[in-house]
Amino acid sequence: MNEILTAPISTLLIIAGLICVVLAIIGRISGKIIIIVPPKRQLPLGGVGIVFLVIGLVLGTIIQPTLIDEGITPTPTLTPLPPPPVTVEITNPKNGAEVSSFPLIVEGTFEGELPEDWYLWLVFYNYDEWYALCPIQPFEGKWHSRLWSKPGTLGKRDIAVLLVDKDGDSEFHRYSAEEELFRILPQRTQVCDRITIEVK
Known about the structure:
Layout: E1 3-5, H1 6-26, E2 28-29, E3 35-36, H2 39-61, E4 67-69, E5 86-92, E6 98-99, E7 104-112, E8 118-125, E9 130-136, E10 142-147, E11 155-165, H3 166-178, E12 181-182, E13 190-199
Parallel strand pairs: 6-13
Antiparallel strand pairs: 1-4, 2-3, 5-7, 7-10, 8-9, 8-11, 9-12, 11-13
Helix pairs in contact: 1-2
């Protein structure tokens, strides 16, 4: 990885330009190192110094100091959602259970305090689309709901508990009322727990 910093380049050009201009004016620099410029070379050297100064100032003002990472395009990162402020677990049925009779009672536990304008929903997932079943109302650390089998749901399917805000809650109510399947979860949806069952 080759990294080029534009700021030092502009600084070096300005310094070099100043040195050239000083040499062009006085013809020499004395110190530990003595530099003497013949008179006939002072004018061209001054011109070179002015060019260096202009380029250095342009780089330093128009092109802001920027770290250029050659050959790599920065990848935008998504800000992760905070962890759910509640802990929800599905205790029945067990993960991997085979289910053949419906309606199926789904039960679980709840810990924490549900934030204002946040809601819990039980959903069904067939690995292609989601189906909003019903909202969950925890009581004294427990909750339960009823899962009805839908046509064409044989095989492995997921049951999940989702935490959604008020906008997601409105969407889920609409999906549930219209028995509409959906592929994309509402924004800010958080999966609290998820198990896989096999419908026989």
